[in-house]
Specification:
mainly alpha, about 80% helix, about 0% strand, elongated, Ser_palmitoyltrfase_ssu-like, lipid metabolism
């Protein structure tokens, strides 16, 4: 795939983004504010998922492995 097709595809994706978000009707300063807020929120979601999802997956794995896995025998008996 040559550079022109990649460039056209990126422009097409950006145009689709403008159509889906209806930001093509905004003024340039409104559009830049909208894009800044959108990118910031997306970055926070990605960061939160990167930090907290592995912890919750590990805790869920430990929880379900205790329920369905081997039960440790009681040392009180």
């Amino acid at each position: 795939m040559d550079i022109k097709h990649v460039k056209d595809y990126i422009y097409w994706l950006y145009y689709q983004y403008l159509l889906i978000t209806c930001s093509y009707v905004l003024e340039p300063w409104e559009r830049s504010m909208f894009h800044t807020i959108t990118v910031t929120v997306f970055a926070m979601v990605v960061y939160t998922a990167y930090v907290f999802v592995p912890i919750h997956v590990r805790l869920a794995f430990e929880f379900f492995s205790q329920i369905f896995g081997e039960q440790p025998e009681s040392t009180a008996s």
